[in-house]
Amino acid sequence: MFRDFLDILEARADAMRRLHSAWLTNAFKVGSRPPRIPTRKVEDGGGGGWGSMMETPEGRAWAEEFWQGALDHPEAA
């Protein structure tokens, strides 16, 4: 049972690495500005460095949708 959990966790981690790699490759191809790396915890204010995005309903909805999809469907990456 624990081995099954580890297999699922490993598969999700691999899928997230592939998703991130694809996103990063595309961002550099189109010349996008790389995102800032958060420097503060969400609990400490500022949304972990993403405060401006997380202050809007659209930003919060986008983040929720992204993470829900990423965690529910690791095979899609």
Please describe what this structure looks like:
The protein has 3 helices and no strands. It is an all-alpha fold and 77 residues long. The chain has one domain. The radius of gyration is 15 Å and the shape is extended.
Quickly list its features:
3 helices, mainly alpha, 0% strand, 77 residues
* Count of helical stretches: 3
Instruction: Count all strands and give the number.
Output: 0
Output mean pLDDT: 77
Residue stretches low in confidence (pLDDT < 50, at least 5 long) are none
Structural class assignment: mainly alpha
- How do the SSEs run, as a string of H and E? HHH
The tally of structural domains comes to 1
What about the largest sheet?
none
User: Per the principal axes of the C-alpha atoms, what is the gross shape?
Assistant: extended
Task: Please compute the radius of gyration using only Cα atoms.
Answer: 15 Å
Q: How far from one another are the termini?
A: 25 Å
Helicity, as a percent range: 55-70%
Strand content: under 5%
